[in-house]
Amino acid sequence: MSTEVLTEEFEVLESIYPTELSIISDREIQIDVEPDETIDGEHPFKLQLSVHYPDTYPDSLPHLTLVAIEGELEDIEHDTLLESLTEVGEENVGMAMTFTLVSHLREQMASLVRKRADQLMAEETEKERLAIEAEEARTRGTPVTVESFKAWRIKFSREMAQRKAKDEEERLRALSPKDREEWKRAATRPTGRQLFEKNKNLEHDDDSFVEEGTVSVDISQYDRSQLRAHEDDDDDGVHFSDSD
Fold first, then answer.
1. Which domains does the chain possess?
2. Alpha carbon distance 83, 184 (integer Å)
3. Taking a C-beta distance cutoff of 8 angstroms, is the pair 13, 31 a contact?
4. Alpha-carbon gap, residue 43 to 39, rounded angstroms
5. Using CA atoms, how far apart are residues 198 and 189, in angstroms rounded to an integer?
6. Distance between CA atoms of 33 and 46, rounded to whole angstroms?
7. Rounded CA gap, 97 and 190, in Å?
8. First-to-final CA distance of the chain
9. What is the pTM of this model?
């Protein structure tokens, strides 16, 4: 490589990148590179491209390294950018290629900015969709099936029984020993419903109280004519006199 050729390329680069270029040695430079596009007026990240020129340059590729000096660069993004730079360098072997490499890097960084922005928008859209679905599910409620209702009723009954037992326990603790014993005795007495369940055939048991030899009369056995005959007999037995 002719030193004059590389010196000439450095001079061109200094005129294009007056503040971004740093000449490390006669065979190495560093250029701070920002993407062509911004987000909210600011560059999301800045890279430093280090270029080390071999003796065979420009007939062979320079050695390139990338370092993020502002923002973050993921490993996969770093590798993708270097691979892209290598492909462009191979296409320009035999010519001064540093400016071409830097221009291509700026374009790829701009594409990365757009990709990040699209990904961020997609994530926000997905979050909003999930939030809407969650709100709809909350307001819509869970459909009730026979199985889910039975499960709820069992759980509800168990909770109510536990709550009742707890309330009774607290109420007992607040009572005096005497009142506590009275409450326990009252709790063991059968309720009216229990008495009714036990003696629901009382109407049949009443027959035992009827005196022996008593004849039951079924009025339905008498027809209307018999009733009139009895009434006429009663009338014949009644006499009125003028003296009365």
1. 3-119 (3.10.110.10)
2. 87
3. yes
4. 6
5. 13
6. 6
7. 104
8. 169
9. 0.52
